[in-house]
Design a protein that fits this description.
5-stranded mixed sheet; 6-stranded parallel sheet; Udp-n-acetylmuramoylalanyl-d-glutamate--2,6- Diaminopimelate Ligase, Chain: A, domain 1; 2 domains; Rossmann fold; single chain; 16 helices; alpha/beta
Length: 370
């Protein structure tokens, strides 16, 4: 029996590989009875209730799609802290790692009509331990689908570099998916990237438009970024924000330019701004009691907020956290941060599935596998 499978790798970090895999798995489940999923090598992992350490993406896929394969098979190899040094010191053998990967893949693929193998980052990630994505794809005899940023020239350059790594290990690049393509450029990029890929005889399987929701961080993301806990509004830890605003102006100017779905960043000693935010919140709540007022507050500075202000914000159920850094440093950290998809953030998971599924050419994908 020929086991149908393909390997999904990205051309770089934070390109949207997991987002693409969510849409691919959802779309393929509508076309096949059993679709398997495996992430052979994981870097960021979490501990399950049973004490098993599993790649965080595997948790999302197994739980959301109700996959029956055991965690140990879906996430056979992890790179915990110190793994690279142990490998280079000879304490970990490559043969043991490849044996686990091949065994897990064989078990899952035998039970599946089709299997998605998710890589870790670009094709060169893992080279220091002789298990980069191209090597793993070669080990499993899987064609690779590359996910790239939604541009033209720079995206093609990155595709070229990653394709070279695949060629080095005898792996076929069977398709390309462009992610986060600006809508006003989508038709142009789709046309010209298709032309560019023809020189390699590689199809463009999808041109996924940019979706603002998928890039919007939540308060839980900010908790992780600043390594702090919410001081108020924990029930809204998954609230998304369309706008992030650093407030250093007068309360009068601030009140003039308030917008919905906004995270306010201001020093903790700017009590005038905090009180103005509370006033604005209660005005909107009184005028529209049935609506959620989607405000969040990030307080900064050396001195934490006074307890009386915390109590007032808690009463309003406004999600708020305090980070002991300057407002400028906080904004800089946020601007360089890429929000990841979380299992509990069902709105973002469902949006990722829909936006990808709608723009993938599944007929070409299945034809490639056949």
């Amino acid at each position: 029996m020929i086991q149908k499978a393909f390997f999904v790798a990205a051309t770089g970090q934070n390109v949207g590989k997991t987002t693409a895999c969510l849409g691919l798995l959802s779309g393929l489940k509508k076309r096949h009875r059993k679709v398997g999923f495996i992430k052979p090598v994981g870097q960021e992992h979490v501990e399950t209730e049973t004490g098993i350490h599993v790649d965080k993406d595997v948790i999302i896929f197994k739980s959301y799609f109700k996959l029956n394969d055991p965690y140990e098979e879906m996430s056979p190899v992890l790179f915990p802290r110190g793994f690279t040094r142990d490998y280079l010191d000879g304490k970990i053998k490559r043969s043991a790692l490849t044996s686990k990967i091949v065994s897990s893949f064989s078990s899952i693929s035998k039970k599946s009509d089709l299997t998605i193998v998710e890589g870790t980052g670009h094709t060169g990630v893992g080279s220091i331990v002789d298990l980069n994505n191209a090597q793993v794809a070669s080990l499993l005899n899987c064609p690779v689908i590359l996910v790239a940023s939604g541009g033209l020239g720079s995206s093609f350059d990155e595709l070229s570099l990653n394709r070279t790594q695949c060629e080095k290990h005898g792996v076929k690049v069977a398709g390309v998916i462009l992610n986060r393509v600006l809508e006003d450029k989508r038709s142009m990029i789709q046309e010209y990237m298709t032309k560019a890929l023809k020189r390699w005889n590689i199809p463009l399987l999808g041109c996924i438009p940019f979706d603002s929701l998928l890039s919007q961080p939540t308060m839980k993301d900010f908790q992780q970024l600043f390594q702090v806990e919410l001081l108020a509004g924990p029930e809204y830890c998954l609230r998304h924000f369309e706008h992030i605003r650093l407030v250093a102006s007068s309360p009068e100017t601030y009140r003039t330019f308030t917008t919905p779905s906004q995270l306010i960043i201001t020093p903790a000693d700017r009590e005038d701004i905090i009180l103005a935010t509370l006033t604005r919140y209660w005005d909107l709540k009184i005028a529209h009691p049935e609506d959620n007022v989607e405000i969040g507050v990030l307080l900064t500075g050396k001195n934490p907020p006074k307890q009386a202000l915390i109590d007032q914000i808690r009463k309003a159920h406004i999600p708020m956290l305090y980070a002991p850094v300057s407002s400028f440093a906080a904004l800089k950290m946020i601007n360089s941060y890429t929000a990841k998809i979380r299992l509990e953030d069902t709105a973002k998971v469902q949006e990722a599935i829909k936006i990808v599924e709608d723009y993938i050419d599944f007929d070409s994908l299945l034809e490639m596998l056949n």
